[in-house]
Amino acid sequence: MRALLESFSRFAAVLSLAVVLVLPQIAYSEAIKEEPTALAMTGDLLIARPFLLVATVVGTAVFIVSSPFAAAGGNLGGAAETLVLGPAKATFVRCLGCTKSGYQRDVVDADADK
């Protein structure tokens, strides 16, 4: 039982770190203009997002293990971008069915009323 509790607490810590590292990316996301089909949305929801979530968690674990070496080599930021932020951005900051990461926002044309 103790091993299960330790395993769960480690998983919770890794997941928390992943979420904390994703939050700044939301502010820097770019608006995109795509109109995905229902099939693309369904495939993204059922296939791509679960794999990307696993890639984010595994990338976070690999980043935690490799961070002392990356820091010693001077590429901690690059390692974080590649292992954690890239998969996390593709998982959480991409509209359902879209191929590019970023938020899909409705853009209002100011000249349309004239």
Structural write-up:
This is Multidrug transporter. Helix 1 (2-27) crosses helix 2, helix 1 (2-27) crosses helix 3 and helix 2 packs antiparallel against helix 3. The longest helix has 36 residues, at 38-73. This protein has a two-stranded parallel sheet with strand order 1-2. The protein has helices at residues 2-27, 38-73, 76-92; strands spanning 31-32, 103-104. The chain is 69% helix and 4% strand. With 114 residues, it is mostly helical. The chain has one domain (2-27, 37-102). The model has no long low-confidence stretch (mean pLDDT 80).
Number of helices: 3
> What order do the helices and strands follow?
HEHHE
How much of the polypeptide forms β-strand, as a percent range? under 5%
Number of domains: 1
Which structural class do the helices and strands define?
mainly alpha
List the uncertain runs.
Answer: none
Secondary structure: helix percent: 55-70%
Mean pLDDT: 80
The main sheet orders its strands as: 1-2
Main β sheet profile: 2 strands, parallel
Radius of gyration: 18 Å
> What is the rounded distance between the termini?
69 Å
Quick one: overall form?
flat
Counted beta strands: 2
Features of this protein?
114 residues; mainly alpha; 3 helices; 69% helix
List the helices and strands and how they pair.
Elements: H1 2-27, E1 31-32, H2 38-73, H3 76-92, E2 103-104
Helix pairs in contact: 1-2, 1-3, 2-3
Short description:
The protein has about 110 residues and is mainly α. The chain contains three helices and two strands; from the N terminus they run H-E-H-H-E.
